[in-house]
Amino acid sequence: MTTSSTHIIEQRSTTNLFDATSTVSDRQIEDLIALATTAPTSFNLQNWRFIAVRTPEAKARLRRFGWDQAKITDAAVTFIVIGQLADYRTIPERLAPVVEAGIMPAEMVPGWEGAAKILYDDKPQQQRDEAVRTATFGASTLIYAAQAAGLGSAPMIGFDAPAVAREFDLGANEVPVLLLAVGHATAENWPRKPRRPLDQVLEFA
Ligand SMILES: Cc1cc2nc3c(=O)[nH]c(=O)nc-3n(C[C@H](O)[C@H](O)[C@H](O)COP(=O)(O)O)c2cc1C
After folding, report:
1. CA of 156 to the centre of ligand 1 (A)
2. Fewer CB atoms < 10 Å away: N or C end of the chain?
């Protein structure tokens, strides 16, 4: 890792207070999501979707179902990070560009599809686990993409998931995994909190 990438990781803290007067352009939002979607997903399923809630009306609507958290409306954009239930039938379509790019031989695709069928078909818990994993990888990469762009971010689980799904027209196969507010942080935010010591979280085997 380069010094600048470790710096970005070390400097991130969760933003609670956003400058409500600052905005980001739709082009900046596209750049952030393009970076976020470089994150890995199982079988390259890319079973995610991001709703960039950035108009005052839509942010106010989301805030009503987000425990009235001010950062939802103060941040320049609040993303609804969605995971889609893993579906092995999407594999041929998702892998076609990989074959086209000459990365993967076409003969390998049925094998991946078969493995995905074994993992997910008729297994609602695994389908949902994968939706949550995928959205979490996406959100996490989005957090660091924002940090690299000089923007703060705030992940939130404090929201009414069924209401958000209903209000923002999520599909029956879609789970609103996280809200992620992104925007310019004010100077008053807390620094990153201390973490548990390594000897409590790391085991060598
Ligand atoms: C999955 C997840 C859900 C969270 N939900 C909320 C939330 O609803 N509201 C809130 O104010 N903070 C929320 N947080 C922020 C955490 O409290 C914060 O990231 C944690 O205290 C660590 O802060 P730091 O990264 O600045 O050290 C959430 C964080 C994560 C990762």
Report:
1. 6
2. C
